[in-house]
Amino acid sequence: MIKKLLIANRGEIACRVMRTAKAMGIQTVAVYSDADAKALHVLQADEAVHLGPAPSKDSYLRGTAIIEYAKKLGVDAIHPGYGFLSENAEFAKACTAHDIIFVGPPASAIEAMGSKSAAKKIMEAAGVPLVPGYHGDDQDEATLKQASDAMGYPVLLKAAAGGGGKGMRQVWKESEFSAALSAAKRESMASFGDEHMLVEKYLTRPRHVEIQVFCDTHGNGVYLFERDCSVQRRHQKVIEEAPAPNFPANIRQQMGGAALQAAKAINYVGAGTVEFLYDEDGSFYFMEMNTRLQVEHPVTEMITGEDLVRWQLDVAEGKPLPKNQSELTLTGHAFEARIYAEDPNNDFLPASGTLSLIKTPMLSAQGSASKVRIDTGVQQGDEISVYYDPMISKLVVWGENREAALKQLVSALKQYHIDGVTTNIDFLIDVASSEPFGNAELTTTFIDKHADSLFNKQSKSVTAELPAIALLTVLSRNQCIEKQSLLPSPWGVIAAWRPNMEYQESLTVLVNDKAHALRLIHKDASGDTRKQKGIALKVLTGSDSIEVAGHLEADKLITFVDGVRRSYHFSQNDGKFGLFGQDSHCHFKVVAPDIGDDDDNHTGASLDAPMNGTVVAHLVEVGVSVKKDAPLLIMEAMKMEHSIAAPCDGMVRGYFYQPGELVDGGSVLIDFDADSKGE
Ligand code: ADP
Which end of the chain has the smaller Cβ count within 10 Å, N or C? Predict the structure, then answer.
């Protein structure tokens, strides 16, 4: 019986395993590094042991130390999660040697699958279909090249020790072979300390379909259907789903059977995944077997209704599998989107920083026809550090069919608001709502093929009312803070506002670094039933006039524009604010005329009236582009004429005052559209 379980991992998977352990009445022990002292997995565990500094090799990879602590704390079993020590045969052996159950397959099965080429030999002998190729021991360049030439190009060079897409190179023609081989070997040596290569026929439009298998110590084995993980970036999964769409039942059966054959060939025990390439013509080929629980296991849980961690713990205790093949059913459709701190528009560069805002989508109501599940190991205020994989969470949804589940996925992604680090959420929304994804036109080259429509999209258009809502956010926040404290508000620069007074001021709002000059009229909202707790504003932008009202409610800003109620989440980072609505989000900064911030504010103080006076003339027509320093408007004050010049190259979008009108000093005179930096 497992009474106490140590989870030799961190983040979402540590929390995930603990959830089931707790439900089974098992005590939990977490491990952590310096960087994770306050992490969710530590807070959620009954006990936690500190392993060392942040780098994995000094903490999460210290197998011997982990086993020592486990002995000291009377731990019965160790769950390795995925990554770190999960596929380390030595660690599995050491656990067994110390009378601790390793929640995973026998060390011999890990070893058998540890090398892609050795695994292929075993699979070949077991009659499992392989991608045509060479996986022999002779590593002479001439031998590898001859195999490639014979097979015909394109071919794929793969590191035998490979993982995570490293040490892999496509070769499209004979003349490129030598250079590609050297590069793949170098990468493999650097990542795995080994340069053994294998060669495969490169399939140009395959799908990645994998089978979840489970075996117990009594000789039983089942497959829990498949997952389609074709949507990948640099050979890493982005969105996974189950079941695979347009996947004939007979292929499911054949692939499931082949996967079980693979598992039986190595006397497998526990949860494993057999990965296949599924080609357009219906043929499929063994790629590799992962001897652990996969990141994407929740989609299988969603469609089968089974708890795979519970299965793992049951099997580890020596119990038979909870179900046989005929008892397993496949219901509905599930997706998993991996929410990462990374910049898809910059080659998916990992991002780090403090998660200043995390607002998760609503989880499904009881009895609802769809389900939303979030597996995460972080909470608001936590740090995404440079030391580990920058995954923030996994968003998992289920619906009665693919269409319903996909709608749920897009909707949940739109409700997922994260600030403080760059995330891939917008990218995931674009992928999930794209037509080819909706049509399930899935291949492993999906992202490359549709790159034009997925990357570097113009930032979603900023609606006319967004700058006004930005002002409302700051004002509401100020009002809220002033009620609680007399200290100056850290929330921006609109300090002069007084409740219940008609008050005007001119401001510039930088929305996504683009300047919007506004005139703001705080309305006396008496008679307005919302007045009690809210603020009502009239905002003039060029020739448009927008009326917005709103108030803060819990952690949301509620707005009313043209009678439509909307809600936004907001955040603050380094003087910039984030505003997150259902269909749009932006970052903004409010700049008061006399506080000017010339670094970011192209319109700056120079578009403001320098003092009280009269507008004399407009010098440039609306819509005309001008160069920096071009005179735009003449105003008279103190019996002198003052010329207001363009602060940078740009275009006049409108004038807030007509010739002859009196203006107050500090009022913004011109709605000026700067040629912004990056656009
Ligand atoms: P790793 O262990 O590094 O993740 P895999 O062998 O699992 O490498 O392959 C990762 C991905 O690379 C697959 O999901 C697939 O998209 C692609 N891939 C692998 N082998 C081939 C092949 N022979 N032809 C086309 N694509 C392949």
Answer: N
What whole-number distance in Å separates Cα of residue 319 and Cα of residue 2?
12
**CA dihedral for 41, 43, 48, 51, sign (positive or negative):** positive
- CA 306–ligand 1 middle distance (angstroms): 28
Cross-strand pairs, 674? 650
The gap from C-alpha 552 to its chain's centroid, in whole angstroms, comes to 28
CATH topology for 465-591?
Answer: Glycoprotein, Type 4 Pilin (3.30.700)
Instruction: Domain ranges for the chain, please list them.
Output: 4-103, 132-201, 210-229+242-334+344-454, 465-591, 607-674
Contacts of 29-36 spanning 24+ positions with Cβ under 8 A: 29/4, 29/5, 29/69, 29/70, 29/73, 29/75, 30/6, 31/6, 31/7, 31/59, 31/60, 31/66, 31/69, 32/59, 33/58, 33/59, 33/60, 33/387, 34/59, 35/383, 35/385, 35/387, 35/388, 36/10
Residue-wise pLDDT for 537-558, tens only, equals: 888 887 788 889 988 887 889 9
pLDDT at 520: 81
List 62, 169, 292, 402, catalytic entry: 292
Q: What is the pTM of this model?
A: 0.83
Average the pLDDT over 259-288 and give the result: 95
Q: From 3.40.980.10, 3.30.720.200, 3.30.1490.20, 3.30.450.40, which CATH number describes the 132-201 domain?
A: 3.30.1490.20
Q: Is 565 a catalytic residue?
A: no
| Range 4-103 classified under CATH 3.10.129.10 | no
End-to-end Cα spacing for the chain: 63
Summarised one tens digit per residue, pLDDT across range 215-241 is 999 999 999 999 999 999 988 999 999
Q: Does domain 607-674 have CATH number 2.60.40.420?
A: no
What span, in angstroms and rounded, lies between the C-alpha atoms of 636 and 659?
A: 10
Ligand 1: nearest atom to the Cα of 159? 3
Alpha-carbon radius of gyration of the chain = 30
Distance from the alpha carbon of residue 165 to the mean position of ligand 1, in angstroms: 7
